[in-house]
Amino acid sequence: MSDLTSPVLLGLIEGITEFLPISSTGHLLVAEHWLGARSDLFNVVIQAGAILAVVLIYRERLWRLACGLGERSERDYALKLTAAFLITAALGFAATRLGFKLPESITPVAWALVLGGIWMLGAEWFAARRPERSTITWTVAILVGLAQVVAGVFPGTSRSAATIFVAMLAGTGNRAAATEFAFLVGIPTMFAASGYELLKTLKGGGAAHEDWAALAIAFVVSAVTAFVAVRWLLGYIRTRRFTPFAIYRIVLGLALLALAT
Hints:
This protein is mainly α. Helix content is 76%, strand content 0%.
């Protein structure tokens, strides 16, 4: 496989899967099993490429937030985004300091895909029977912050799935409102993670060993692909449920478990 093919494929996988509730990290770990492992910096930075797409898509919403901090509703929303991010940052940093590393085998990722898919089916069923609300409460904000940590610690869980469904179960029954909050809180989360990994790489002298050209290619491919994927998803969830994604997760997880045996 050429030096160009691998980063392009990884960028495509990241861009498609980062915001669909099917686990980008899980898919990347599986892909790297055949394409060759990449550094933690590579994986985090191409996730930042996908996040850049969300910044572009939600640029008007972000501008309203920035300009509307004098209004109580916008200030309250911004504070809840900040709280969710700080919870993730604090606990994520603690997990890093404790020596947490991504698994090297496919089996735990496969189990996370299966169990996460089953959980999604149950959560969607339960959320559909509750009154539809678009409000983001403090409980939702705190739980979304915790959900991001869980998704980071257990690859295959999916950050978007964990945050969206936690928000829905915690009271934000409207899929669009839950998805917007989950995606917006991912912006500072992933940019902070990318910055942390970049500083760690530069400080540790790993920059000389990093394939910066491949990383740049994957970053651009991830950003473009994610832009298309998020646009499609936001239209999809207006009238449809997440059930097909849950079924896909279960089928993929079972297939990976069969291959691992």
